Amino acid sequence: xxxxxxxxxxAGFIGSHLAERLLRLGYAVTVLDDLSSGLREYVPAGADxxxxxxRRLGDVQAAFARPPDVVAHVAGQASTVxxxxxxxxxxxxxxxxxxxxxxxxxxxxxxxxxxxxxxxxYGHPERLPVPExxxxxxxxxxxxxxxxxxxxxxxxxxxxxLPAPFRATAFRMFNVYGxxxxxxxxxxxxxxxxxxxxxxxxxxxxxxxxxxxxDFVHVDDVVRAWTDAIDREAxxxxxxxxxxxxxxxxNALVDAVLRAQGRDRSGGVVEYGPARPGDQRHMCxxxxxxxxVLGFQPAVSLxxxxxxxxxxxxxxxASAGRAP
Length: 324
Ligand code: NAD
Ligand code: UD1
What we know:
The chain is an alpha/beta fold. The protein is 38% helix and 17% strand. Helix 4 (87-108) runs parallel beside helix 5 and helix 6 (190-199) packs parallel to helix 8 (250-260).
């Protein structure tokens, strides 16, 4: 029998890739998204689309009209910086939204929930690479809301008083990049921002000294891990890091982006501004648990992934430049 999957946030960057992969695996897919940062055209053909806000329980319940076998809760506000502008809004989208999804799962007896958590919950970790066993100590409101959401789904997964089986897995994703990452939105991931800057001939702005580092992982590697986890009992009840296991400084990333476009820093294309609040200094994933539980092995190197993303971004820039 065809299994049903609900992907919240399936019109966004990561969610649209996940919805696509679930369809390829034979799932009947429904996407719930309010299109606040996602695009309707990113919802893959073949998926049902419902426009709705995860902060509204009624909208979430409508997506459970035909109860799914698995829910991938990807919808969220993804920006660390915006969480400082409006912490209450961040908390309501990321934490209350997750509680609504959780409530609907229990009411519909949906047995499986996968959650988009984040490496931001670690704050400034005491060692690198970061294993899941380090205590969370977020330094941004975004990290707090992701930690609240993660703990809520995992504690529910541990409950023994529920009438039906319920198992959750949270993915602490590091810096995910790839095709369909926004090239225009200044609140989305840094790689898409830099690619957009370079293709539009704008200056690149680095916040802080640029020596902060991040672990960039391609979206294909990430969504493969999500779908591999669905039936993998060893992943039930766990929070699992998803990264590449390598880190690169933001300065080096800028140079790689410029080089891929056949350019360098000449002409003052790179400028520096003040560091942003809640900015972590160094991050890198320890992938031991992901390897053990999911057999996770990132397949896309940063060089290849950057090339692929740049090719996609050039296509976007070309079609944006064409007359309607
Ligand atoms: P994105 O903005 O492209 O995707 C988020 C999607 O959720 C969008 O389609 C948006 O329209 C939708 N959405 C937002 N608020 C909603 C609401 N109230 N109701 C319904 N839909 C809503 O961002 P993304 O990079 O694909 O991130 C997806 C998820 O993964 C987010 O929860 C984010 O916090 C998390 N995450 C992202 C990264 C990363 O590096 N991109 C890393 C760790 C965690
Ligand atoms: C990112 C994600 C977050 C996710 C987390 C986990 C976004 C917007 N944020 O947070 O959802 O949970 O990873 O991996 O996708 N920078 C610049 N210039 C710019 C933009 C950014 O120098 O124009 C710097 C930032 O100050 C930061 C680094 O680049 O030091 C990465 O920034 P960003 O991509 O916004 O992500 P994170 O805060 O790491």
